[in-house]
Amino acid sequence: METHPEQSANLSLEDIRHKIRAYRSIGHFAEATLLIEQLPQDVRYSRGVAIEAVQLYLAQGQYRLATDICNNVPGPSSAEIESESFPFSNHDEDVVAFELLRVLTLRVVRFSKVKTALEIAQRFGSAWNLGMIVSITI
């Protein structure tokens, strides 16, 4: 599963996400990290790739690298997300997933603000009806 810089430039964002996820799942952290480091900044800090990168870094205990990704992905500010008026339901899955990872990384891991992180996660969950039981009829 070797990736060279010129090869990673030709991959789609979904392919890059899949490759990082595959490396992480088999414990090839160094290869995944190298792939991420070789990506152009606009790709590395795109939400989809950032989701995979943050998960990789948290799995390794590389909190500084996870924080770096979180701080460089464009999105709502901490104050906006903590605001009662933030429209959680107006965002797609990647935004929600990344913002939850950002809350975990920046609030819990970095600053030990568990209560704030839980409040934000609950508001995301309420907006997306994540607490509701879903029944599937086959």
Main beta sheet:
none
Helical coverage, percent range: 55-70%
Mean pLDDT across residues: 80
Strand content is under 5%
Number of domain modules: 2
Distance from N terminus to C terminus (CA atoms, Å) equals: 38 Å
Q: What is the N-to-C succession of helices and strands?
A: HHHHHHHHH
Structural class: mainly alpha
The count of helical stretches stands at 9
| Uncertain regions spanning at least 5 consecutive residues | none
What's the gyration radius in Å?
16 Å
Number of strands: 0
Shape: globular
Describe the structure in your own words.
The chain is an all-alpha fold and 138 residues long. It has two domains: 1-74, no CATH class; 75-130, no CATH class. The chain has helices at 5-8, 13-25, 29-38, 41-44, 47-60, 63-72, 78-82, 93-110, 114-127. The termini are far apart. The relative contact order is 0.10.
Question: How is this fold's topology laid out?
Answer:
Blueprint: H1 5-8, H2 13-25, H3 29-38, H4 41-44, H5 47-60, H6 63-72, H7 78-82, H8 93-110, H9 114-127
Helix pairs in contact: 2-3, 2-5, 3-5, 5-6, 5-8, 6-8, 8-9
Structure at a glance:
The chain has helices at residues 5-8, 13-25, 29-38, 41-44, 47-60, 63-72, 78-82, 93-110, 114-127. It has 138 residues and is an all-alpha fold.
Supply the key terms.
single chain; mainly alpha; 2 domains; 67% helix; 0% strand
